[in-house]
Specification:
Layout (H helix, E strand, L loop, with lengths): L2 H23 L8 E9 L5 E7 L6 E4 L3 E4 L2 E20 L4 E8 L2 E7 L2 E21 L3 H41 L15 H13 L3 E2 H8 L3 H13 L3 E6 L2 E6 L3
Parallel strand pairs: 1-5
Antiparallel strand pairs: 1-2, 2-3, 4-5, 5-8, 6-8, 7-8, 9-11, 10-11
Helix pairs in contact: 4-5
Amino acid sequence: MDLRNKYLLKFFLIILILSLFVFYIYPVSADDKYYADVNIEVDSSGFVTIEGVTNHPKLLVKNTELYTLKKQSYWLLNITKEEVFSDFVYVLSLPDDSSINYVTASGSFRIETSNDKLLVKGFGENESFSVAVQYQLEKTAESDNILESNLLFIFLIPIIILVVIIVILFFRKSKDIKKSQEPSLSVEVYNSKGLNQRQKDIMNLLIQRKIALTQTDIQKELKIPKAAVSRNIRGLELRDLIEKEQSGMSNLIRLKKP
């Protein structure tokens, strides 16, 4: 190898070393940095969709739970890309009926409201892409009222059943007491009326049967003459103990209520 070729080889080696040195000192030029102009949508179940324009290979996603975490009633959304972005713009849309506890983000951001939705709008230059939001889903007044009504109804059912049982038992007991206080119908009640034996037999028969009887029925049951039946019935009628009711060719005989 001649001297000229040796110098050329050394020259190319020096250029290569300098290039590698510059590359490691300044790895990415401004034109080679990432950029993003995206919309971030979060639904009530914590699924995240990121759509828009970016050259970052892992920023755009659909229906993922990688960026959200729920602890008790609080949700935490954290989207962080450590790589440097020459510029980024985003609009983050939270679920309906959300309330924000805090927001931390790279660059600048502001919170807005649109159609009852909370929006976080941010932008930045020459820094990493990062936005973290802690939020909470608030129950609507209507759902609270429904829940309260259901709980009230559940607690009222046993109370209503208990009241109904108490009322039924009270009326049944009152009826039994009233019934026990009523004088039982027996011929002894009419002893003071001066009844003869046949009249007592007729009264006992009417008390036992508890229905109106014809004179023929009474005659057959007691086996006494027809004339005696008529005479004694007349006597009981005069004492206001029985009453007659015409039924065809016969008379129905029944007890007269005291």
